[in-house]
Amino acid sequence: MKVWSTNVKKTIIILLFFCNVSFGQEKTVIHKSIDSIEEIVSRLIKNDSIVEARTVLDTVYKKYQHTKHNNFWVIYNYNYGVLFNSSAKFKEALKYLLESQKYSNKTPNKLYKERISGMILRIYREVNMYKELDSLYAINIVENKKNNSVAVFLNYTDYVISCMRRKQYKKVIDTTNKAILELDAFDFTDKSKRIIKSINKVVRNELKLHLAMALIEKKEDYKKSYQLLGEVNKDSLLFVKRERDQYLRLISQYKARYFYEFDKNIDSVFYHQSLSNKYQEVYIKKLKERASNASDFIYEIAKNKNDTEKLSIINNTNIQLKKNYAQISFLISFLLLLAIIFSAYVFRSYSQNNKINKKLKDKNEELLAVDEERNQFFSVMSHELRTPIYTIQGLIEIIENTTNETQRKEFLKTLQFSNNHLSSLVNNALEYSKFRLGNVRLNKDAFCLDEMLQEIGNSFSYQLHKNNTTLHIDISPRTETNVIGDRLKISQLFINLISNAIKFTVNGNIWVKVIQLTKIENTIMFRFVVKDDGIGIEKELQADIFNGFKGVNHINENTGGSGLGLYIVKKIIEDLYKSSIQLESKKDKGTAFSFDIEMKQNLQTITTINLKGKDCEKILKGYHILIVDDNKINLMITKKVLESAGANCIIVDNGVEAIAKIHKNNFDIVFMDVHMPGQDGLQTTQKIREFNKKVIILALTAVDLEKNIKKIGQSGMNGIITKPYKKSDLFQKIRSYPLK
C-alpha cells in the first residue's frame, strides 16, 4: 500500500473535521467540503493511493450515512465511481456513476452533471459500448458548448480515443483538428491554473498525439505527423503521470513507423522500436503495482461490506436473545462458519493472486527474452543482407558499362556468388524461424550423394579461389550414394559447414568425407565429416558456436556472418535426424565436424541429365507445357528455361485463362503458381479437376511447404517444384512424366 506523505496532514485534518462536526452544522459542512473531498480523493488517485482514497470517502460516509442531503450522495457516489474506474472495475464504476446522476438530477443546480456525464462517456469508451458512447457524446458536446465549459475538450479526447480503437481515422483527424482550433479560441482568463494546465496543455498534447497517429495510419502527411510527434515528445511531462509511459511508448512506436514507411531509415526504426519496448516494460511494471493497489482496494471493500453484514446480524440477534437462546447459538455458529469460509476464500484468493503474478512475471521475462532475440535477429540480418544486395546492385551497373568480355565474366562470377550468398542468408533466416515455431519436417527425395556434394563444391568455387583453398571430396569405397532422403536439408548441412570452413581457412584445405558405417537391408548409416586446417576455434568459445546469435562471438570483423548456420546444422541433426554433431578443434590447427545420419537406399536407377552441349536443347522436345503465373518476370524466365530444352510453352497470368486454355488444348504438363490474385492456383486446380483428371499439374512456387503441402495435395496437384530451382531438378521432374 502506497504512503501519500505529502497529503497526510491535510487528510487527517479533513477526517477529524468530519468526525467531530455536530449535526446542526451538517448542511454547512457538506456544502463547504465538496471541493476538499474532491481535491483529496483526486490527488490520492493520481498517486495510485486507491485504498487511502477509499478511507477518506468511507470516513465521511460513516458520519453522514443517514443524511438526506442529495449533494452528499452526488459527491460520494461520483468519487466511488472514479475509484472503481481507476481500478479497472468498469461495471461497478458505471453503477456508482448512474447512482450519482440520479441524485444530481434532484439538486437545484444539477450538481456535477457535466463531470458525471463525462465520466460515464469514459466508461463507455473503456468497455467498447460505442453505440451508447456516440449517443452520449453528441448530447455532452451540445451541453458543454451551451455552458461554455472546458469539459467539451475532455469529451473530444474520449471520443477521439474510441475512434482510434475503431480504426475510424478520418473522424480522428477531423475531430482533433476541430478540437485544437476551439482550444486556441477558448478564453481561459477566468480559469484556475490547474484547469489551464489540464485542459489547455495536457488535453492539447493528447489531441496532437492522436492526430499524428491517425495521419500515419491513413498514410497522409507523414511530415506533419512526425512534427506533431516531436512536439508532444518535447512536452511529454504534460501528460498525465499515470499514463505518461504509455504515451511515450506510442510516440516511439509511431516514430518507428514513420521511419519505416516514409523516411526508410532502418537504423532509426530499430532505435525507436527499442525505445518503445523499454517504455512498454516500465508501463507494465507500473501497471502491476497499480493492479496490486486495486486488489487491496477491492479486498478492503469486500471486508468492510462483510463487517457491516456481521454487525447487522448481531444486532438482530440481541433483539431475539430473550426469546430463543437456541436460535442465538445457531446464529453464532453460522457466523463462525461464514468467517471460516470467508477466511478460506481470502486465503485461496491470495494464493491464486500470487500464482497469477508469478506466471505473469515469468511470462513477461520470457516475452522480454523473445523480444531481445527478435531485435538481435533483425539487427544482424539487416546488416548481413545489405552486403550482397549492395554488391548485386553495384555489379549490375558495372556489367552494363563494361565492354571487356573477360572482365564481364569475372563480374558475373562475383554476381553469382553474391546471389548464392543472399539465397543462403534467406534460407537460413527462414529455417531459423521454422525451428523457433517447431514447424519443420523431413521430406523424401531420390538423389545421388556424390553428385549433390560435387554441385555444392562447384557453387563455392569463387570463394575457394579467392581464399586460395582446396576442397577435397572423399567418398569411401563401396559406399552406396544412390539414396532416398531430404536432399534440401542434407544440402543445407554441407552448405553451412563448408561455408563456415571457408570463412576461417585461407591458403589451406577443406575435406568432406563420406563413410558408410552399416547397411541393414535398405537402411544405410552414413558418417559425414567436414574438416579444415584453418584458424580453429578457441576452447572457451566452442560451447556457444551452435547457439544462434551467441555464435557471432566467434565471427571476427574480417569474416562476418549471421551466426545462424551452425545453429541450423545442429537443429537439423538433433531435432530431425535424432542424432548428434561432434566438434574437434584446436587454435591454429583447424576444425572438424562429424555426424551420423541414416537414409534409405534407392533401388531405382537415377538418370543424370547433362545440361552441357547441344543435347540439352532436345531434353524436353515434344513436351507441350502451360505456365500459369501472375508475375510477368517469372513467366518469362520459366518459359525461356523450358524452351531452351526444346519444350513448346504457352503462358497465361491468371487462373481463369488457364482453365480456358486447358479446355481447348492437350497439354502434357501444367506449371501452376499457388498464390495469384482473384482465383489462386489451388482453386484453379480444383476447377480443372472437375473436367480433366489426367493432365499433370505441378506447383511451381516459393511458398512454405511445411504449411502448404497438405493443401497443395488436396487441391489435385501431382507434385511440387520450389523456387528457386535447379534446371537439372526441373528437367528431371518433367522427364519423370512420359509424353502423351
TrEMBL record:
The keyword Transmembrane helix applies. PROSITE patterns: HIS_KIN, RESPONSE_REGULATORY. Its EC number is 2.7.13.3. Keywords: Kinase, Membrane, Phosphoprotein, Transferase, Transmembrane, Transmembrane helix. The modification 4-aspartylphosphate is found at D673. It holds the Pfam family Response_reg. InterPro entries: CheY-like_superfamily (IPR011006), HATPase_C_sf (IPR036890), HATPase_dom (IPR003594), His_kinase_dom (IPR005467), HisK_dim/P_dom (IPR003661), HisK_dim/P_sf (IPR036097), Sig_transdc_His_kin-like_C (IPR004358), Sig_transdc_resp-reg_receiver (IPR001789). This is histidine kinase. It comes from Aquimarina muelleri. The lineage of its organism: Bacteria, Pseudomonadati, Bacteroidota, Flavobacteriia, Flavobacteriales.
